[in-house]
UniProtKB/TrEMBL annotation:
Pfam families: Acetyltransf_1 (PF00583)
Domain N-acetyltransferase: 2-151
UniProt cross-references to InterPro entries, sorted A to Z: Acyl_CoA_acyltransferase, Bact_Acetyltransf, GNAT_dom
One annotated Gene Ontology cellular component of this protein: ribosome
Keywords of this entry: Acyltransferase, Ribonucleoprotein, Ribosomal protein, Transferase
Name of the protein described by the UniProt record: N-acetyltransferase
Species this protein is from: Nocardioides alpinus
């Protein structure tokens, strides 16, 4: 049975390892797991960071990382889902849904009425997952997609 809970700084090591697994699975450039562990330990101290951890009898099987930022267009912060990962052998078993549901509940409890997620266009399975949970790329009343741009700060 999978249990999903809010992660704490004590979970930094397992979260760093899971993020490294996630990045290497998709051949994304990443720092070593030890570096990620240190970063998790630092950011999990911040009020505007929320992490969720899924565990079963074998150990950690998934996680989510969210950040909250102030918003001008409504009261409460905007939640950004930075990462959501489930180990490959356990996908399509509802763990991702459990992680997303708890993530949404936690940020809603922190006053966030809206969550943003960046997904690669070619990642059809992930897009379907979020769309199944009510996320859209076209807001009601418009006929164009929202895009997320990424670029350097300098």
């Amino acid at each position: 049975m999978t249990e999903v809970r809010r992660a704490t700084t004590a979970d930094a090591e397992v979260l760093g390892r899971l993020l490294w697994d996630f990045n290497t699975e998709f051949e994304t450039e990443t720092d070593d797991a030890d570096v990620l562990v240190v970063r998790f330990a630092r950011i999990l101290e911040l009020d505007e960071i929320v992490a969720v951890l899924a565990e079963d009898d074998s150990g950690a099987v998934g996680f989510a990382l969210l950040s909250l930022r102030p918003a001008i267009w409504f009261d409460g912060p905007v939640a950004q889902l930075e990462e959501l990962y489930v180990v490959p052998s356990l996908r399509a078993q509802g763990i991702g849904t459990q992680v997303l549901d708890l993530s949404r509940s936690l940020v809603r409890g922190l006053g966030s009425p809206e969550m943003h997620i960046g997904v690669d266009e070619v990642d059809v399975d992930t897009r379907r997952f979020y769309e199944r949970h009510g996320f859209v790329t076209i807001e009601e009343g418009v006929d164009y997609r929202m895009l997320l741009y990424v670029g350097p700060t300098g």
